[in-house]
Design a protein that fits this description.
The protein is mainly beta and about 210 residues long. It has two helices and 27 strands. The longest helix is centred in the middle third of the chain and has 13 residues, at about 65-80.
Length: about 210
């Protein structure tokens, strides 16, 4: 099948479309609920999400950064019987015995090492890495240049910021946000925002951008 429908006309969508071209898709269109958006890069926006059923013979992928919205839309597509794919850039390195769920995208320069499982609807972004024996839950985003060491568990909807590092043998609960450049050296047991080196929970009295929260 050479037809792909991408939900979400954004910068992230442009990157996904580029990967799709590189893996052989020849007919790529976007759906987006913003009526003012008519194109995404060189690709046409042909309607809103409600138009998805008009493309029953196509493959689908959701290109929306917000994990909860991405989950909602992907779930609706699955319920409608549409075919969701995962996309892996040819310049990514995927070891044997790696499992990748539907709707997940792996960007250029990413590395995923053996016996790791990546859930549904994840984003493994440019030049990030996930080492051996990791469990990455559904709708997790490993951002640009972030690194996850071996035997790490990251639960669903968690966002690991650009350049962050997760040390080995760590467990992170769902719905966390790990700030850019943070270094996680102990388990995170509460859904929270974590910043700094070592990473710590963002709370009252901490300084962000020069201001107290």
């Amino acid at each position: 099948m050479n037809n792909l429908v991408i939900i979400g006309a954004s910068g992230h969508g442009k990157v996904i479309a580029d990967i799709a071209e590189k893996v052989g898709y020849t007919d790529i269109v976007f759906l987006d609920d913003n009526p003012a958006v008519e194109s995404c890069g060189s690709y046409k926006v042909v309607g809103g999400c409600k138009e998805a059923l008009s493309y029953k013979s196509a493959d689908f992928i959701v290109a929306i950064g917000n994990a909860k919205i991405r989950r909602k839309i992907q779930s609706q597509l699955v319920e409608a019987g549409l075919h969701i794919v995962s996309l892996v850039h040819p310049a990514a390195v995927i070891a044997t015995n790696v499992k990748i769920g539907i709707g997940t995208v792996v960007m250029a320069g990413a590395v995923i090492n053996p016996y790791t499982e990546i859930g549904q609807g994840c984003i493994i972004n440019t030049c990030s890495s996930v080492d051996h024996d990791c469990q990455i839950g559904d709708y997790v985003h490993i951002s640009v240049g972030a690194h996850v060491a071996g035997t790490v568990t990251i639960k669903e909807n968690t966002w690991v910021g650009a350049g962050a590092t997760i040390s080995n043998n760590i467990e992170i609960v769902k719905d966390c946000m790990i700030g850019a450049g943070a270094v996680v050296v102990k388990n995170i047991e509460e859904s929270s925002t974590q910043i700094g080196i070592p990473a710590r929970k963002l709370g009252n009295g901490q300084l962000v951008g020069g201001s107290h929260l």
